[in-house]
Amino acid sequence: MGYLFFHITATAYLAATLIYTAYLFSHREGLIKGATYALYAGGVAHTVTIISRWVEAGRTPATNLHETLTLFSWIIVVLYAAMLYRYRVAVIGAFVAPLAFLLLITASFLPAEIIPLAPMLESWWLPVHVMLALLGNAFFALASIFAIMYLIQDRYLKSRKIQGLYFILPSVEVLDELSYRCLTYGFPLLTLAIITGAIWSEYALGSYWTWGQRQIWSLITWFLYAALLHGRLTSGWRGKKSAMLSVVAFGVLIGSFLLINVFLGGAHGLLR
């Protein structure tokens, strides 16, 4: 069942992406409603996919790259739905849907077999650590999306050519505020993920900190986002500077994730 709903999810996300793209060019309000419904439908199917995998594996479905990308994509869509309910900015979906689809399609090309965890890694710290990390990363992804939207709007304003996307994207003030809010949610989640990861490491390996690649890059990412938030609070790093730094920090986060999981065997490679 999970396999079927995985493909239903991908189809719905693709449909949402195409409809959102049509909306960006035509600005027809009916299209954005259809795209949002398609994205929601994909989110429902995605939820069934996650639950099915969880039940089948008997553990948190985030111990290989296929599972992690699938779960990460789902969390981003859920956060988007929550933000849409709170802020009523549906056009954000035009950026979220392609990202969710890309993550899911990438996951579909990766090995999907269920491999049992090594006994030393079986702990309730696994779901706690993984969910905190992925939730924090999802907030950072949204912060980066808002930052990109900000840079688009800022370019329109600086060029004094008010056209195209300018009329359907939120104002730079709204985008800057939304990006900042996402950062303030993502940073404490990242902090807690590092702490719980250290506790899990002590449980599994007998040491809180082993200076492994995942821990080192997590610390580097933490310092980047700490510097960004500190700069906003004390040095007035707002607007374009904050947006650019947010995109760079998320680029480092994604780059380190791919480096570890594709080239270095994964963060938690102790599988039986």
Give a structural overview:
This protein is mainly α. It has two domains: 1-115, Four Helix Bundle (Hemerythrin (Met), subunit A), CATH 1.20.120; 118-272, no CATH class. Helices cover 77% and strands 0% of the residues.
Number of strands: 0
Oligomeric state of this protein = single chain
What is the total domain count?
2
Radius of gyration: 19 Å
Helix content: over 70%
The shape is flat
Low-confidence spans: pLDDT under 50, at least 5 residues? none
Beta-strand fraction estimate:
under 5%
In whole angstroms, the N-to-C terminal distance is 26 Å
**Secondary-structure-derived class:** mainly alpha
Reported for the largest beta sheet, the result is: none
Secondary-structure element order, N to C: HHHHHHHH
- Number of helical segments with 4 or more residues: 8
Mean pLDDT value: 88
Key features?
mainly alpha, Four Helix Bundle (Hemerythrin (Met), subunit A), 2 domains, 8 helices, 77% helix, 0% strand, flat
How would you summarize what this structure contains?
77% of the residues lie in helices and 0% in strands. With 272 residues, it is mainly alpha-helical.
Topology:
Blueprint: H1 2-26, H2 29-57, H3 65-87, H4 93-108, H5 125-159, H6 172-205, H7 213-234, H8 239-263
Helix pairs in contact: 1-2, 1-4, 2-3, 3-4, 3-5, 5-6, 5-8, 6-7, 6-8, 7-8
